[in-house]
Write a structure and sequence with these properties.
34% helix, 88 residues, alpha/beta, BRCT domain-containing protein
């Protein structure tokens, strides 16, 4: 495969195409890897209230998980509350 690629890019038609791409502004320099910014998550910068009995986590474990996702966890509902999570 490597030999085929080398042979192709050594052809005059491929060289011409590469030059046209460069002339049109295509950057062919390797700039290293780019770390993608983590996408916003559902709870980022949201105010959350937990209520009821949580079956799979303790309240403090669930609070920690929400905080790790960027949520502010409060103890009571107010006009600033974005989400109310109710455990049965």
């Amino acid at each position: 495969i490597a030999e085929s690629l080398t042979a192709y890019f050594n052809q005059p038609s491929a060289q011409k195409l590469l030059q046209e791409l460069r002339d049109s502004g295509l950057n062919m320099e390797y700039l290293g890897t780019v770390e993608e910014e983590a996408p916003d998550n559902f709870f980022k910068e949201k105010t959350v209230v937990l209520t009821g009995k949580l079956s799979d986590f303790t309240r403090s474990e669930f609070t920690k998980k929400l905080q790790d996702l960027g949520a502010k966890v409060t103890g009571s509902v107010s006009k600033k509350t974005d989400y109310l999570i109710y455990g049965a």
